[in-house]
Amino acid sequence: MPHFRIQHQIEYYYDAPVDLHPHWIRLQPRGNHFQQLRSFQLQIQPQPDRLFEVQELDGNLCQRAWFNDPCDHVKLQAIAEVVTCLENPFEFLLEPWAVRLPLRSEAQSQSDRLLPYRQSYLPGGFDPACLRLAQQLLEQAKNDTISFLLLLNQYLYERIRYVQRPFGDPRWPGQTLALGQGSCRDTTAVFLEVCRAVGLAGRFVSGYHWGGPEAEQFDLHAWAEIYLPGAGWRGFDPTIGLATAETHIAVASAPLPAQTAPTEGTYYAPGISSTLNYQVALTRLLD
């Protein structure tokens, strides 16, 4: 089983000392039967006055920090060791009624709990381009659930050229389709919008991907997880066209991308601007 060490450093610099509001920190990888968290260390400068461990609604393990004194910089240094265990991402059996789309026999209680994961990103309803793509792929897959997901994964991999875009929210899904290019979070947003358009529940995942020893740099990566009755949450990465397995390390997941951000918080200092620097190192260890 692959064994990885992740080092993730984030630094904020301010033009002058600022008063920080409470901050959420999401840098701790998951620990479950798909990946084992061997160790995690988090260093924060300046040292917060209060720091609490929190488990969020989707099971994300995070920290919440309070700072009493004004400061002109904040530095976060997270070091984790993780063993990934999912060798075959298709080793599961769907519920008989979930083999074909649309899903028809889901219990009402489960359907209600999954409602936030089925809603469009757009306030006015699903993107028309995504609806057309969903119908096109549904016909090609002959309504087979897994075939639909694989066709969608491959379609986006082949038609959306990957570009680095370090900052900013994901673009609207229809915009990414029209441009034919996007970051991993842009492509993931399209994947989720299309899946939700056919009634599948999906969530946005933030984490890391091991691209092999030849990779020259690493960054946070994004992909989708789809809830498959009988199999639970299963990952699909349209940026590389594969189902997620032992080279993916998940950190946080949620219905909306903003809810998986590595840091979340504000500061009070009118007229003061900030600068963000970050660095990610991902190393595969020998057991």
UniProtKB/TrEMBL annotation:
InterPro entries given for it?
Bac_transglu_N, Papain-like_cys_pep_sf, Transglutaminase-like
At the top level, the lineage of the source is Bacteria
Query: Ranges for the Transglutaminase-like domain?
Result: 176-240
Pfam families in the record: Bact_transglu_N, Transglut_core
Q: Give the protein name, as stated in the record.
A: Transglutaminase-like domain-containing protein
Source species of the chain: Synechococcus sp. (strain ATCC 27144 / PCC 6301 / SAUG 1402/1)
